[in-house]
Task: structure prediction
Amino acid sequence: MSHVPDDSSPVIRMHLNDEEATLALGASLAAALSAHFPLPTSHSPLVIYLCGDLGAGKTTLVRGLLRALGHGGKVKSPTYTLVELYTVSNLNLYHFDFYRLNQPEEYLDAGLDEYFQGSGVCLVEWPDKAAPYVAAPDLRLELVLDGAGRQASLRAESGKGASCLSAMRG
Amino acid sequence: MLVLGIESSCDETGVALCDSEAGLLAHALHSQISLHEEYGGVVPELASRDHLRRVLPLTRKVLLEAGRELSDLGAVAYTAGPGLAGALLVGAGFAESLAFALDVPALPIHHLEGHLLSPLLAKDAPRFPFVALLVSGGHTQLMRVTGVGQYELLGETVDDAAGEAFDKTAKLLGLPYPGGPVLSKLADQGKPGRYKLPRPMLRSGDLDFSFSGLKTAVLTLVRDGKVAATDQADLAAEFQEAVVEVLAAKAVAALKQCRMKRLVVAGGVGANRRLRQKLDEAVRKVDGRVFYPELELCTDNGAMIAFAAMLRLRAGLAPETDAGHAFSVRPRWGLETREG
Result:
């Protein structure tokens, strides 16, 4: 990863009891994004890393986020396609999954870096598999199994990320 | 007419030669399997670079096998989508350039159309109309097929594809690559029912699927230490049974909804023995019949692309070729939006 977050980085931590809570966290993230967009003459997307093991709920969280933004269709796993694009109220959201990359160079071979040069929001599952080539995150979300639920932590890793977190705190 | 077909939408590079009179003459595939066994990868890895490296040697190979020359070609077909843009562009660029050089038409073909017409290549081919169950690592959907170019989506997965669920569950159980087939093999040694897994969306009243929750259910069992090494086979069997039951029930529901008797199964998971058994049983009960493609044509291949192009040519439904061979690929492309 490009840099280690320092301890003063603002972090939101919470316990998610069930799938509904994961969807709700996605929705509150969506609300923070809507407060943020359109970004003034942005030439780089807002990058959100989604970290956690298989079955932690990463795609579920993205589903909650997209539904809250008004996406009415399906939110399928991007594991096979590597990227799924959604356009909701003029906002481009790219849902990546680098699970299938065996070598990070495949990220460049497949031309996936081009998606990180526009505007919009890049949601990235398994970002470590494309390190060090994939863009650094503005926000890093971690989901860890905890009893029947999940422990979630959301950490800002840039100024853009920090302002998203303050928007979430209201 | 002799048609060359190129498939490069994802991991496999496939090239084939199909003749409008003699049928499939030759097909060749380059798959990455041997390469990633050593990495313990789950589903086949990306090979955008390799499409470029493989497409010419594979083309030479099929021409040699069929005893034909490039100058014999009447058309060049390629997968134009859906898939990974970079991978699609390799096949499209190759096919369009070759067609330009030979002054023959280049035909962009939908990847899933190739899959769902592939059982027509079998010796015992179904007649139209039929319901097609496409089930692979990347797709799980039911289509109503009334003729060449006439497809209606009946239902599909709302999250993970069935093959993806097999692969990821295998990984959760610590099984070696290739996850899905190893899981099925293990399942044959176990008994379903000892563990209880959900049958997601079995009674949802529609023809959609969901397999993501099954993976999470297995994860919970494994994490809670409820699965000793000796119990893995039973859990694998229950998992396979859950997936297969839902697929079979929805396929039968689709036949009933369409008032049809013929079910066609395509895609890599279509090779699963237990799925075939269950589908045969369930469809026989409603006086129907199941048709499968030849085993080697279940996974991505060039033959299905050459064949779909040939059927389109025969039906007068070939897409119009741009005189200057300008082309584009469509990474996101719904089959229903296909014109003609």
In short: Residues 19-36 of chain A form the longest helix (18 residues). Chain A has one domain: 12-169. Chain A has a mean pLDDT of 88. The CA atoms of residues 26 and 62 of chain A lie 6 Å apart.
